[in-house]
Amino acid sequence: MITNNYPQIIGLCAGILLLTSLLMVWRHSLLASIGLLAIQGAGLAALVAVIGAQTDDAELLLAAALVFAIKGVALPRILARQTGATTRTIDESPHLNPTASLLLVAGLTILSYAILGPILVHLDTVTAHAAPIGLAMVLIGFLLLVTRRRAGSQLIGFLVLDNGIATVIFLTSGGVPLFLELAISLDVFLVVVILYVFAGRMRTKFGGTDVDTLRELHD
Amino acid sequence: MDFTLLAPLALPLLLAALSMPHRLASVTRFAPIAASIIVLTSGVLLIIATEHDQVPTAFGGVLRADSLSAYMLAVIGAVGLVSVWGGLRAVPTEHNRFPGGYDSLLCVFLAAMSLAVLADNIGVIWASVEATTIATAFLVGHQRTRKSLEAAWKYVILGSVGVAIALLGIVLIYAASLSAGEPTLSWLSLTHNTLPLDPALVRAGGALAVLGFATKAGLAPMHSWLPDAHSQAPAPVSGLMSGVLLSVALYAILRIQAIVDPIIGPDFLRIMLAVGALLSLAVAAALLIKQRDYKRMLAYSSIEHMGIMTLGAAVGSAAIPAVLLYILGHGLVKAVLFVLSGRILTAEGTSAIADVRGLLQRRPGLAVPWLVAMAAILGFPPFSIFFSIVAIILAGWAAGMGIAVGIALFLVLVIFSALARTTVTMTLGSPKLAPTDSGSADLRPADLNGTVHPDRSAHGPRLPLLLALATAAVIAFLTEPIGTILIHAAAVLGGTH
Description:
The complex is a heterodimer. Chain A is an all-alpha fold.
């Protein structure tokens, strides 16, 4: 079944990834964004599993399980624990209004097709055609990072960026060797845990997690 | 399987695990020193091995020590030793919930940098550079003040986003090798097997990878985390970060450059690196002229020196031995300066340049080494930085990069005058006399007549600073063995080894 509908399934998974990124830009509630992040993680795991099933690659199926465990379950849960306890009612007030940011997302998606399209012409595979979605997610992650003000939202931006890179990895080259995949996942996981701890300290020291209050160091 | 390859990775991690519980604090505070000595010894042993034309490998080639790796490992060990030994007394640990964490993380930091230079796999290099961010995050935020928290947040966000961009680039290079028929991330295979790599993919991948590692190397315009992190971290950590972490990122750039240049020609990365180098020098010059904080001054000076080294990387193989000598000379001197800045901060209670005056008269024990080290960082001979800068400028001139080199020389002179003025203010300027009008309490011992006794104490171990400055002063003259080692290490990037 997978073999017959392979391009469609890859397209569907990539669509889920792009859609969840877009919704994260649109929604301002942190909890909603975290829910979307979990869906995105699951979508990425499904994408990896489909590629693995198509190419009969057991390592990729393992990688899919790893992606699901970390990006689909563990990281969203850590973020939700922090957010659920303290900021249930507070919503993000980003620097950009929703209409402008949605237009920007559309622009970034077109841009990433324009950039990656000519580069990837030689990789004439079904998956490589969807790879610009990954770059679009990286750019959307950047957008979230620069327009959001709360530490939690910046963390989500970082994770979208990282999911985008993972998408590019799996779509262009069918995954890196497993030990490297493990090292990359561990690094990302630790970075998020560290930022989570810092956000906690920020709350006790600054009384909030608005990153705009970090203005003491300058020249 | 070679023990000298595994020792600098496994033993520091073991020491890190041992120093986690704080019960043996009186012993485990020496753990980072032991870890540095292990790294330095392995580096020297590996240099000896590579000079005998051996290339030790382990784990099926994932770890591999060619001349360049061995040299970088020795530099990490040497600069690490100066920083952690010199900064032995610098960190108060009472108020911390994880008191053993400081020594432990320093050991992990050393192991991560060692892995970065010993790995033959550019994916592993990436993972270990990211691991250095993880290890240093809590070290930067160690003081737990608002400022150090702000510095740590910016450092981790910018550092990991930048390095993530490098991963994107590495993935594109991997995709290029995949479409060339041999999926590999091994640096050796990518440079020596003459794979028919797709130039478009390699160009995009190389640009992104260099951009990402340049963030970690503190090059403008991605430098904004650096002055904050380096000024807020405890002195030994700043010494390690400024002295070697930046150079390890530059090492990653050099390795990427050796993959990219044979495929698409040297001009693409040369322009990119030269622009980054000149921007870094311009930023450093602009912000050093009116700098008011001596720890930030040292951080901007690191941006300046990374800029010149990057200019050397842009020039290419003719300048690489000078760049490698620069890495060692700058690392040692910058470690000394950061250690001293920590001691001055503890003694004077302020990091403002304007409040630290007449140091030579009041605290000669600190001012004399500070003056010597500042002379070295300013580029006075006989210190090796002078010879490195001259060699890079001459090589750049010969390579037809006259305009870039000219601009760089002008900016270096601006920075020279700015730093010289600050140093004179701090060491020679007339000391503020009455403590009452300065607002800050002055703790100098004074006798009944009000005469002030100069404080001759070095406020910490003298030996590491002395050794580091002496080494920085003589290495440039040792054609044998240093010159040979440098030429062999540079030859690795040219593909002849």
